[in-house]
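Hello Y.,

Per our agreement to keep a running log of every chain we model this quarter, I'm adding this entry. I've kept the format consistent with earlier entries: sequence first, then predicted structure.
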Amino acid sequence: MDKMLYMIVFSALAITSMVHDTAAQTVHVVGDTMGWIVPSNGAVAYENWADDKTFRVGDTLVFNFTTGRHDVLQVQETSFDGCNSQNAIGTAIMTGPASITLNSTGDHYFICTFGTHCQGGQKLEISVSDDSTRTPGTNPPPRSVDGPTGSVPGGIVPPPPSSSTTLLASFLLSLSAIALVIFH
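Predicted structure for the entry above:
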């Protein structure tokens, strides 16, 4: 009877593990190979970069920059438009590369507060949607980040493990636990 109870519990855990975490998050390297710099063509550089991206809750933005030369600060729209830090959301991240997880829907605004960097175009506006429309088990390919900072070893920021990999590992772990209970 005890073995039957263990089997039921471990089977339930296996099923729960398979259902858990089916949505994969996307890692977006801001500016791709350009990195987080004052772009030569102004703010249009980051506007163009963001245009073909879909940002969802749970995704991560990676800002590649040289520590001591740039920073990243999330601000409200009025501060974004005026390139000031008066309506900051949190504190500036001074150490590069910086990773920011998108935790809410809506418009998000990021600036560099060094000198006139924001006025020079080092600012990013994105719109974040709900993650409920994400296709389970999909991830983008790794993105190259060999840019002016060179701060990521190997120049690649890998995407998070795919949901199918996570599910398979969870399932195999659960099956191993069940086998131990049955044959112990």
